[in-house]
Each structure stands twice: as C-alpha cells, then as structure tokens.
Automatic annotation (TrEMBL):
Disordered as annotated region, ranges: 1-20
Superkingdom classification of source: Bacteria
Domain Cysteine-rich: 212-297, 344-420
Protein name per UniProt: Fe-S oxidoreductase
Biased composition (Basic and acidic residues): 1-10
GO molecular function, one term: 4 iron, 4 sulfur cluster binding
Taxonomic lineage from the root: Bacteria, Pseudomonadati, Pseudomonadota, Gammaproteobacteria, Nevskiales
Pfam family of the protein (one): CCG
Keywords: 4Fe-4S, Iron, Iron-sulfur, Metal-binding, Repeat
InterPro entries to which the protein is assigned, alphabetical: Cys_rich_dom
Amino acid sequence: MNESFRDRPSAEGGLQAPTRHPLPWRSAEFWDRDALEAELYRVFDICHGCRRCVSLCHAFPTLFDLVDASPTMELDAVAKSDYAKVVEQCYLCDLCYQTKCPYVPPHEWNVDFPHLMLRAKAQAFRRGEVSAQHRRLTDTTRIGRLASIPVVAETVNAINRSPTMRKAVRAIMGVHPDARVPEYHHPTARRRLRKQAVDVHAQPAGPTRGRVALFVTCYGNHNMPQVVEDLVAVFRHNGISVRLLEREQCCGMPKLELGDLDCIERYAQTNLPVLAQAVREGWDITAPIPSCVLMFRQEIPLLFPESSDAQAVRAAIFDPFEYLMHRHKAGLLNTEFKQPLGKVAYHAPCHQRVQNIGPKTRELLSLIPGTQIEGIERCSGHDGTYGVRDATYERAMKIARPVVSRIRQVQADHISSDCPMAGEHLAHGVDRARHAVHPISLLRRAYGI
C-alpha cells in the first residue's frame, strides 16, 4: 500500500492568507504524465482525508465516490485511469482554493486543486483527448464573428429557438437541446459604440483614475451589446471617461477550461500589448464579464509571470461595480436615482467572488431607494460550456437547483447576476420563459438614463 500523504506530520490547516504560485507550464515536468499522476495521487489523498469541499462542484463527490467504492476505501485502490473522471467535473471556478481548502500555500502541503486540474486538462488536450465539439464550442471569437453577420445572426437565432433544429446542433456542437443558449446581435457592441466621442475629463479617486478603456469581451460584443452600452452610459453618467480598446481578442477563459494553453498564449500576445499601452497612457481597464476580469487579474499573470505587460494590466483592471464603489467612497458616485427596482434576486458569480473584492454589486444596488437585494452566494452550475454541453447540462442544472429554489422563494421582480451566462442559466431553471437582467442594466434603469 502506498504511503498516505496525510500520514506525514504537519500542522493542521493554515491561518495565513492564500498565495498563488505561477503555473510552470513551460517546464518539462509540467507535461510529464507520470509526474502528473503522482501529484494527482498526492492531492486527491489529501482531499479524501479532508472532504471539506464536498458541497462545491461535482469534482469532489466524484472523487469521494471513487474512493468509497474501492475495495480498501482508500485512494490506493482507485484506478489511475479514473482520475480523468474527477478532472472532467472541475470547471475551474476557484472557490475551493479561495474559500474552503486549508492546505493552500503557504501551507507546506501546497494544494492548488484548480491549477492541478488545469494541468491535467492541458495534458489531455495535447494528447488529443478533447472532442472536436468541445473545441468548436470554446472558439467564441470565430463563432461570434460568423453568427453576428446580420443574415447569419437571424438564422442562428431561429435555429436556437427550434427544438427540431436544436437536435442537429447537438450533433455538431455537443449542446444539449434543452440548454439555454445566447442570442447573437447585429450591430455588435463595438459597432454601436465606435463613433461615440470620448470625454477626456477625468477625476482620480482612490486607486481609480477616472478614465476607463473598455475590454468589451466576446460575449459582450456579440451576445449582449445592450449591456455594454448600459455600462458605458452608467460610467459616463458618473463622470468617468470611457473608450473602447483599439482591438481585442478573446480573454482566453473558454480555452483555459479546455486546457488549450498555447491558444491562450496567442490570445495574450494580441491583448496584452494593447491593454498595457492603454494603462501606460493613463487608462484603467474594465470588462462586463467577471471571468474576463479574473483572467487578466489572476490567470494570465500566473501563466506569464515574466511579462511586464501582464503585471501592468493586472494592477489596472477592475470589476465595474468595484470601480464604481471606489468612486462612491470618494464621494464621486451619482446617487440621484429616479426609479426603484423593487426586489432583486442577485446571484454573486464564482469568478467575481474569488477576486476578493467584496460584494460591491450588492452594496451599490442597495443604495437605490425602493430596492431590496436578496443576495445568493452559491454556484450557478453554468461556468461557460459546462452548463450547455450535452455531457454536463443535466448535472449543471442539478448544481443550480438550490439557487433556483432560493430565487423562487424570493419571488423577485428581477433575477440578476454579474455573469450573464449564470443569470440566464438560473432564470431558465426558474421559468423557461423568464430572463435575467444584468446588474449594470438595472443600475441604468434606476438612474433613468
């Protein structure tokens, strides 16, 4: 029997703040399959002895079920070929690292479960073990550009509304026919906003400079251009200068989920010089999608720790509501709200929570008279492609069930989440005909602008 890592003497848990090590993905050991299996065994054994994260995603129940069903009820009797079943269920939400695990660095056991899963996904991707359907589904830039051509957008949206045609999409893209998928729009957000003048007035406040270069994102550009317009309107209403970046590529989060690190590098080579130049010219950065902010705030700096551009962008990128609350603290937020919002069931998405910025969206919306915020901090189960793929849709809906139940209990006027995909996934679970409203759109409505 292999020695259990848990049998070695060590302090129980840790009281120091978590720290993240750069991901050594260019090293030979990172890609060594035997070294990966040894590290999976080490970390899985620690997780088996702790089980604190069982209530998060399905990766941990999968692991513990494998152990409990083995002859010895220990990890040594679990086939290494079954490790992939655990990896498949991790969608890199990062909550285990940031909120649950007592053994993250600087603890000597050095457990980084999400980045270990990323390493396993990266190896599987290089071995060609990722389906063509999943590869297509994560190519958000190409899909968005094609689907946002006017006649194509109308056709794609019509196909997505047709139960019969959705079965064909299932075969091509691996999307479950019952999953809610986004609509595509023309003109895109970048086209709608490209001719707007930039207000050069800027008043610094706290860490903000009052000038924001907007990373529109694939989803914002093609699937929710109105929300991007709402964000620009709200920022300008608060005296913040806004401009679009000259060009942008996907942030890379869909490819991170896939384990395609080479593609992320190509995207970063396009994005980082443009973003860093904006920072050097005195602009802060924001994006309407929490996952994209997280990508530039955490994952890209850890993948490219030697990049001064990555570090500059990391220091200058903000969540939109984080930015506005910095302005509020300095007395610069416009609080002349004209419309109450009633009761809002507000879901805090995982990729925003793990940024450790606090509940800024809930705090700001709570300033609006006649508005009651019912906050929900639990995973929606969507997380990019996990919530729509044929292989994982049913499980994603099961993970979402407690949040959906809470929303029904609240009987809210609005369902809202900073992650539009999570919001729509939850609204879909509540009522097939209901839709979510992005918090920035609710804020614009409250301003009456």
